[in-house]
Amino acid sequence: MVTGANGQLGNEFKQLTSAYPFYKFIFVTRDELNITNIDSVNNFFHSSPPSFCINCAAYTAVDKAETEIEEAYNVNSKATGILAAACKEYNTRFVHISTDYVFDGTATTPYKEDSPTNPVSVYGKSKLDGEQKAFAANPDPVIIRTAWVYSQFGKNFVKTMLRLMKDKPEIGVVNDQLGSPTYAADLAEAVMAIIVSGNWVAGIYHFSNQGIISWFDFASAIKELSKSDCKINPLTSSQYPTPAKRPAYSVLDSSKISETFTIPLRGWKDSLEQCLNRIKEQAVV
User: Fold this and answer.
1) CB of 192 within 8 A of CB of 18?
2) Catalytic residue among 59, 101, 123, 249
């Protein structure tokens, strides 16, 4: 069972189904299942309890969350607790996707799973609350924190840059926020690797592609690989203010997930190139 079926990650799981023919995938959208309603979730699980539940559903509008606080907490926190409890009751393995925004971004070395959390935005606080509700309701979840997610699907930085580079001769991109991008297809593969491993080790894990870059570096690579003529100017965060504060440093240490489940970690640029090729092939920008 995959929630958030229409999102970036949910769509990447749809791409993987043919590679796992021995599993029956059930994809649910918010219209098909209200995961913030305990009765709806319990009824769903009662009628067809899945072996695994992968929660890709999230309220990810980081800036809007500063004002839409209740909605952010409903989806990112309350719903996570409801799903975790249902999974415990029906002996379903629960995989939940979280975020680098649970950290404040003041670190100078990659964040490990036991690094102190201190979210500085409503989005980050709601996601951390979701992690805590999951563990309170269920001792056995796998929670994967990820960062800078992009895909050929949905709205994301890569597709926004491609559009802007096509429409504008010059753009500005923040150069003082550091992180590691995550290709959603790689994250979906990692989750499936955990499921098929038969080696269920509950806990928190970090997953992203490898390498430390700024958003400006990321945009520059998109320009290079897409052969754009657009000029990209580096900006400071103060030159590009946003309602929600962003972590200045959100690099995640992915060694634990790699070692526990024997998951290979790809370099960010190789994954970006693969995504850009898929976008070009399908013309989905």
Assistant:
1) no
2) 123
